[in-house]
Structure formats: structure tokens, C-alpha cells
Design goal:
With 445 residues, the protein is mostly beta strands. It is 7% helix and 41% strand. The chain has four helices and 26 strands.
Length: 445
């Protein structure tokens, strides 16, 4: 086998060649290792390694394939109304740019019982139950509460996307200084008495607005929350509610009562995401475009909240077909190192599992290939954190297609029931830790 020809024709770097001595019954007797490391550059001749023979030999070759096209693709179509939770907050960093999360929430009554005409409102409180926190939770921040003026409308598929917005009163009902306290399970915001009493009075008697969501939404569409400061991103559960604390004055004091309007019982909710993806890696990136790694400072990204996925193409993969007469592919693994200093276990947690698919030239998924998990974790030195993704099935698929086939491997963050900030920023680190595919060939005979 002429290794110089392999280097020139296939743009491959020979990583190692080992010879195994085999008995006639194919039982392994001993291993004779031979390591051959070199670089493959234009006009450079590759020295043929010494061949060791003893009886019948198996010539196992591991080659390093680096002819890979890599792109980051941003998608703005994240349907957030079907999540179990809603998200509020603002975050900004050098990796993602800036993210504003603004939830729109509607409410419904949990108690259809009639409110006594003599009932008096004491206070009305918005209670937001935490699901999880993202990023730094130490800074204090202000929460603005606005009244929603427009009913939340879904599309024909029942979705409301993160880029959508609906009309709300720009003058807040209240602006309250807040802080995340880990020992508490919620944030409480006391709403204006006049606002609460107006709804409460219409909730009394036989024609109560609390009897149905349609009746309620005739006079109260819901709330919109916002925080303008650099705060943590906070996800809240659908158990969050507006509570009307009231009492019924009488000679025999019946004590205090509580009427709840919960998000869970409401007609809908969704989180609007206002995202500016300008960062130290991406300069004015456009959504729905394949952004080459050469235009993003050597990184590619997979991230749910940014709508980022990775497209991987193998433009010269059909050249491997010429080896099919003598060898078959036994295995192929894609090495994707995480870029140092873009992850940690506290504020920038990397995704530990990714989904693998095959997409066409329009990035539409045609076939699912399963998932892969993070192979190595090195938070201390950040030199050996990477994915080792088996892609033999993808290479076999590409080899079965014609020369004009433009299908690619698609790497994405798994779907979730809530907004996730975990992601991946991948790049070559060094000559040893780089983006590559290791392919193992074994002879046919």
C-alpha cells in the first residue's frame, strides 16, 4: 500500500499503523506495535513505515480525517408556550451575547365557589415558585409587573414562539426590588390594592368573572414580567399564582380566606426571548444561515436558548470509496473538544448529551441517529473535555450516496420541558486536541 498516495489523494493524516500476528484459526497470539506519526502537507512525501511480517498478518490502519466542513446554525423558532415553566431575567456574557427573558402569563381560578357579597379584600399578592436558577444569583434586581392587554394566540400547530410578543401596558403596575434567597422557594410581589380590588369586586356573586377563563379574560388578560438589570435567569413553575387574601366581617368572624388564580389553570403562557448574539465569537450572526467556523473565530456552538445547532459536512468523503476494494471501515469516531474557559460546573454548565441526526441541504432532519454523551471532563486544566461521537453510520450513509449528495450530520441540544442554558462551545485546542475523525480500516482478506 502506497501511503504517500493515500495522503495526497484522500487528504488524510496517517495516525498509526499496527500489525497483528494471527494464527490460521484467527486466534491472536501476540501484538507487534508499530507507531508512525507524521503530518500531511502539500508536496510533502510520506515515509513508508517498516512492515513486519510473520506468517499471516492483519494490517489494521487508523487514519485521521480532517477534511470537515463545520457550521453553526441559529434558529429563532423556539416554541416556549409548551414548556412546563416560564423564564424571567437578563443575562449577558462574552460567549452568548445578551439574553432577555420576558414571560407572558395568564391565570385561571382553582375555586369555582361563589365569593360572599360582604367579603372584603385585604391584599393581593403575586407568588412565583422557583423551578431553577441560571448563572449568578447574587446580584439584586428589580422586577416590573405589567398588565397584559391582548389574548395570547397560538398558530395552527398550537405554538407561540420565543420571538413573538403581545401588547401590554408599558406603565408597570409595580416595580419591586428583589433578590434570590436560596432558602426560599418563591418570590412574592404585593400588587396594587386598587388593581386587585377591581378584579375582586367583579368576582363576587352569581356573575363572577372567576367562573370561567373566558369571563376572566374579558377584563383581565394576564401579566407580563420584566427585569431590566443584569440578573440571573429564573424559571418558575406553573403553580405560581395571584392570591386574593380576603375576609368576611361578621359577628362570628369566619377568619381569612384565600382565592388563587394559578398559571396552571390559565389559558396559556410563554416566554419571549430578546437575544443579541454578538459576542467575542460571533459578529452580527444571522439566523437561518450556515455560519462557517472560519467566520466565528474558530468555534462552533450548540445551545438551546440561542437556537444553535452544528452542521458537519464531509465534502470529500467519497474518496474513501476507492479503498473499498481492499479495506472496510470498522469504526469511525468524531472528536469535538470544548473550548477552554467557556464552561464550568456552576455558571456555564456544558451539555452532557447531544442528539445526532442527518439533515438535507436545507437543514431539515431526514433521519435520527440517536445521541452521544460527553466522553471526558477536565474542569481543572480544561485540556481534555471533549465528545467522542461514533459516526460510522453517518459515513456509511454518505458513501452509499452519489457525489452530489449534500446531506450532513446535525448535532443539537436535546429537547427539554423548560428553557435550558447549558450548551457547547467547541473548537480546536492544540495539535493533540483538535476536531477530527479517527477511522479504523481492516482488510477484506
Amino acid at each position: 500500500m502506497d501511503f504517500t498516495l493515500i495522503c495526497q489523494q484522500y487528504k488524510l493524516i496517517v495516525y498509526s499503523s499496527v500489525l497483528f500476528h494471527m494464527q490460521k484459526k484467527d486466534q491472536l497470539l501476540f501484538l507487534i506495535p508499530f507507531i508512525f506519526l507524521t503530518a500531511c502537507f502539500e508536496n510533502e512525501k510520506l515515509t513508508k513505515p517498516q512492515m513486519v511480517t510473520d506468517g499471516e498478518d492483519l494490517d489494521l490502519q487508523i487514519i485521521e480525517y480532517t477534511d470537515i466542513d463545520l457550521f453553526t446554525y441559529f434558529n429563532d423558532s423556539l416554541a416556549t408556550n409548551n414548556f412546563n415553566s416560564f423564564t424571567l431575567g437578563h443575562h449577558e456574557d462574552n460567549f452568548r451575547g445578551s439574553i432577555y427573558a420576558i414571560p407572558y402569563i395568564q391565570f385561571g381560578s382553582t375555586n369555582r365557589s361563589e365569593i360572599n357579597e360582604d367579603a372584603k379584600l385585604d391584599s393581593v399578592v403575586l407568588v412565583l415558585f422557583y423551578e431553577k436558577f441560571h448563572y449568578d444569583t447574587l446580584p439584586g434586581f428589580d422586577i416590573e409587573v405589567h398588565e397584559l392587554l391582548e389574548t395570547l394566540e397560538t398558530d395552527d400547530d398550537g405554538n407561540i414562539y420565543s420571538y413573538q410578543d403581545f401588547q401590554f401596558d408599558t406603565s408597570p403596575l409595580i416595580k419591586q426590588a428583589s433578590r434570590i434567597v436560596p432558602s426560599k422557594d418563591s418570590i412574592s410581589i404585593t400588587l396594587p390594592y386598587d388593581f386587585g380590588n377591581r378584579l375582586f369586586e367583579m368576582g363576587k356573586g352569581n356573575n363572577s368573572i372567576f367562573e370561567s377563563n373566558n369571563d376572566l379574560e374579558e377584563v383581565f388578560k394576564g401579566l407580563v414580567l420584566n427585569t431590566n438589570d443584569n440578573s440571573a435567569l429564573m424559571s418558575f413553575t406553573a403553580a405560581s399564582y395571584i392570591g386574593f387574601h380576603y375576609r368576611i366581617p361578621s359577628d362570628l368572624d369566619e377568619g381569612k380566606a384565600l382565592l388563587k388564580l394559578t398559571v396552571e389553570n390559565g389559558s396559556g403562557k410563554f416566554t419571549h426571548l430578546d437575544i443579541n448574539r454578538n459576542s467575542q465569537y460571533f459578529q452580527s450572526p444571522q439566523a437561518y444561515e450556515n455560519i462557517p467556523i472560519q467566520q466565528s473565530n474558530g468555534v462552533i456552538m450548540a445551545d438551546q436558548i440561542l437556537g444553535a445547532s452544528i452542521r458537519l459536512g464531509l465534502p470529500e468523503v467519497l474518496e474513501l470509496k476507492e479503498r473499498a476494494n481492499d479495506f472496510i471501515i470498522a469504526s469511525a469516531s468524531l472528536r469535538l473538544p470544548l473550548k477552554p474557559n467557556t464552561y464550568d460546573r456552576y455558571f456555564n454548565i456544558p451539555v452532557t448529551t447531544v442528539n445526532l441526526s442527518i439533515v438535507d441541504k436545507k437543514n431539515l432532519i431526514t433521519q435520527n441517529l440517536g445521541s452521544a454523551s460527553l466522553s471526558s471532563w477536565d474542569e481543572q486544566f480544561q485540556e481534555k473535555t471533549y465528545y467522542e461521537i461514533p459516526i460510522k453510520d453517518f459515513i456509511d450513509y454518505k458513501l452509499s450516496k452519489g457525489v452530489n449528495n449534500q446531506d450532513a450530520l446535525w448535532i443539537s441540544v436535546p429537547k427539554s420541558t423548560s428553557i435550558e442554558t447549558s450548551g457547547l462551545i467547541l473548537s480546536e485546542i492544540s495539535k493533540e486536541q483538535k476536531i477530527k475523525i479517527d477511522i479504523t480500516f481492516i482488510p477484506l482478506n
